[in-house]
Amino acid sequence: MRRLLPLLSLVLALPAVAESNLSISGKVGLEARYFLQDPSFPGQHGSTALSGIIEPEFQWSDESQNNLFSFVPFLRLDQRDSERTHADIRELSWIHVGDDWELRTGIRTVFWGVTEFQHLVDIINQTDAVEAIDAEEKLGQPMVNLSLVKDWGIIDLFVLPGFRERTFPGVDGRFRGGLVVDTDLAEYESAAEEKHVDLALRWSHTFDVYDIGLYWFRGTSRDPQLRPVTRSSGETVLSPFYPQITQYGLDLQATIESWLWKLEAIRRDSKSEEYWAAQAGFEYTLVGVSDSAVDLGLLMEYGWDERDDPGLTTFQNDLFVGTRITLNDAASTEFLAGAGYDLDTQSKSFLVEASRRFGDNWKVSLDAGIFSSDDPTDVAHSIRNDDYVKLQAEYFF
Amino acid sequence: MYAMKPTLHRALLGIALLTLGTTGFAETAEERGLTISKETKASDLGWGDMQADMKMILRNRQGQESVREIRLRSLEMENDGDKSLSIFDHPRDVKGTAFLSFSHPIGADDQWLYLPALKRVKRIASRNKSGPFMGSEFAYEDLTSFEIEKYNYKYMGDETVNGRDCFRVEQYPVDKYSGYTRRIVWTDKETYRPEKVEFYDRKNSLLKTLTYKDYKQYLDKHWRADEMNMENHQTGKSTRLLWNNYRFATGLSEKDFNKNTLKRAR
Q1: Cα separation of B114 and A267, whole Å?
Q2: ipTM value of the model?
């Protein structure tokens, strides 16, 4: 937090320069989760949990629109899990736009990838894992990113000073294993620990129906290895260990009529392991089902990991199917349903999301998740009793 | 023989002229429709680049209204369809969403959507042209740039619409993914601006009527309507498009239309 302060004061000084183009928006949300089974592990909370978030967005820009500033703080309060109660700066950034380049400085989020069931190539930001189990919520990452627009594609250079540790549920939280991860015990391969400066270089381009991205990343792995340690109290907990890695990534999408063909692949090298992993599949959309405005999307993906160990990775030999139903109505009603099946361990998961807008400012969503696993060696086994229903209301301002 | 030559010459010339004249007068309805449409396209060429604010008012059968606000930037491309960037401001839950489109006279458009919640740029299938735009009565294909190659044409006579003397031309979409069998367009003879369009669904029944109101001229050439009303006859729903703050020659160029500008559009 301390290293963010100079940046914060810089950005806070700016509204005076450009107060004319200030915009304030954001959201407040309330969610209720209901867990269908008794918890698997001692200490985990019971069937209900209430939680709330606030995420305002302050944006301003100068008259020329060549300097853009954003500040997006985030706060969650959780009734049950003190580790899920947390604050973050999602964004505190300055974008300077040049003729065929832009420089993005500060805390930001960058997403890379094309697939839906796993985000394999996405690496710049750390996952805010207490937020959701789909790994789509990210912690803000400090960065300097120079982006060059050329005829032959976009080149992005990243210098990433400062590492963000992954968040983990606390002893009270659901969606955890039998041993609690103690983030205070985090260890690093690099002597610079969380101050290690990571680097990344990415090229992306569009050729006709193909959108391609290729990158190189060197630095601290976003995925910690979890190592059991025994405290002086005799209690065993997990300590996250963050190795240094070099990773190459590819994302490719071919958009052909109603089909989106998708491929993500990585090669990761570290001291302890070297491996390939990939996620590939398609999304097919039936537009205007039986002459209505309804679109029906059908998705199928396959996840593979060379390490072939369900204890190390969730998706080593996994098949996913899903459907997306978009009503295209004034309330933007949508349904998403997805199922994952581990072909090695037969573990299964089902996720359903439904959402619509109410009035101008409210959005309500209803989610459910069902997990089943009979194989104790599968990481999915630890959440087998965390079937849940979640009702969420968000107010956008 | 020599004496005959000029006579024969003249006779042949006469026949040639006659044939030419006949073709001129016997221009088929299809050819006339194409000519009018080409003249319509030509009358608006050279607008260069444009920015505008758009407010959509969606109204259901019960009269309940909901509002969308979008800012639009577009760039005229020589020998290709337009490039455009749409930025969504309202409703608030989609604020920051942006849509980049490279349209093409023939074949699928290239389209990308930026989803601010995930910071994700998604290439989307432009096959979805018949679908409703933001839940409105406008389909995506109703909002893309008019290109000659997108339709076949037939001139159906002259009629008066909104008190203006208009050509009535039927347009038959070439693209098999269009939601229409045909459109009937009434174009003002003097200014070549559209006054009214009727849309016929895949079963060839009247689906929607679009009417234009309050035209203003920009750069002494380009006519733009301040208001467009789309009425769906089959559902009883309607959408009003209110245009505001039209600006031409704002200095936009191709570098303002790529994935980087999509991500920071606001």
Answers
A1: 27
A2: 0.91
